[in-house]
Amino acid sequence: MRRILLTAVFLSFGVVVSAQKKEWTLQECILYALENNISVKQSQLDVELSDIQVSDAFGNFLPGINASASNSWNTGLTQNVTTGILQTQTTRNFSAGVTAGVTLFDGLRNFKQYQYAKIAKLASQYSLEQMKDDVALFVANAYLQVLFNKENLKVIEAQHEITLEQLERAEALVEAGSLPRGDLLEIQATAANEEQQMIVAQNQIEISLISLAQMLLIKDYENFDIAERDYEVFGAEVLDVPVAQVIEAAEEDRYEVKVAEINRDLAEKNLEIARGAYWPTLGAFFNYNTRESGAGRFIAAGLDPDEPFREIGFVESTQEVVVAPNMATEIGNPLPFFEQLQLNDGISYGVQLNVPIFNGFATRNQVKRNQVGVLRSEYQLEQTRLDLEANVYQAQRDARGALKAYEAALLAREAQVQAYEYATERYNVGMTNAFDFSQSKFNLQNAEIEVVRAKYDYIFKLKVLELYFGVPITDLKF
């Protein structure tokens, strides 16, 4: 197998690939497509998103912790945080806190959400595998189309070689006067027609190669080609398997059924989540907070010299006045920052219960919508199974029909070979003209082309049936 260096630019993300093979086998094309196809990559992203969804759902079980801090300046009539008195001032205040909250019970909705996320992840994985099967089939079909076009060209070229030999012989016979010039013109017309067919066939090869390269996200069309070899028919034994057994295997292994089943499970889980809204929710919280202020603080300065004592009451029985020392105060500097934080801190904690009583039928209607969704998913699962059964029947009929067409094409080619040999003998002894002989050769050419077409059509339809029977796409033999 020849190898060259080429640069392939992926259409979607511009990845440069070097040292590509010029001639690609079918298995290499399938594996390359499974790694680089845009649809496959998008499905892989869906799997990654489902992993994140599982992480989100698990995070709902963990407590939420939030910290806050603020530093503000107030100018004008504000409350002095130290004295509690309203006064006109400019102050700076700092506060900070940490709050933690956790859900103790919410009707099991968090638990159901976690189950939903894990099921959704499985659904995305099934969708990815289904996408890989579809892409592999598309690639195989495109690859076999290239092979058919190449074989078609080979048949025409082989017939053209025979025509050129006949043309050379006819020219000699015409010059010798042993063959009418009309026969020579007929052979020349046949040769010209075959040259035109070769041009058309070559164009079909190039178009089919470009189509395959685009499917593989390769833009170096000039250097892209496939490995030419004779693909045999493998796996014909699946045609003898009863269709009921194939359907049973398909229902167990095919991802479209698994996806439909998973979607039903998701719908049922959504219904359980909606019903959880009928239940009360219970949560717990804990808060730690502290504060600091740049405002001055009142400090004692001894007895007031103007009024050292102040009356605070009197004894009713003796009418004796009760006095107390009257301490003078003054505004001092605020305490240090961290000392204030330590002195002014505090905590709060507790539980909170919310009981749903009435919310405008929102919960009831959501439950009903999800009940409809469950029924819809069950109908879709039933329809998917019916479609799969029909597809298996169709695939088996197509494969058996393709086999009969291939066998008939082989018999037709054998008959045309004998007819062509007989026509050649008659033409060589002058018992038939060039037109009839060319017509016989044309019929043989069409018979050989039909054998090639029927063969690759049979191979592809046989592989489709094998997929339904549970053979992995990477294990298919060509």
Describe the structure.
The structure is a single chain. The protein has 478 residues and is α+β, with helices and mostly antiparallel strands. The chain has a single domain, classed as Outer membrane efflux proteins (OEP) (Up-down Bundle). It is 58% helix and 19% strand. The chain has 9 helices and 12 strands. Strand 1 (8-9) and strand 2 form a beta hairpin. The longest helix is centred in the N-terminal third of the chain and has 67 residues, at 109-175. The radius of gyration is 44 Å and the shape is elongated. The chain starts with 7 loop residues before the first strand and ends in a 10-residue tail after the last helix.
Please provide a brief summary of the model:
By secondary structure, the protein is an alpha+beta fold. It has helices at residues 26-36, 38-59, 109-175, 181-215, 243-253, 255-275, 337-343, 362-428, 434-468, and strands at residues 8-9, 16-17, 23-24, 64-79, 86-105, 225-226, 281-293, 297-303, 309-315, 320-325, 327-332, 346-354.
Task: Give structural attributes.
about 475 residues; 12 strands; Outer membrane efflux proteins (OEP); disordered N terminus
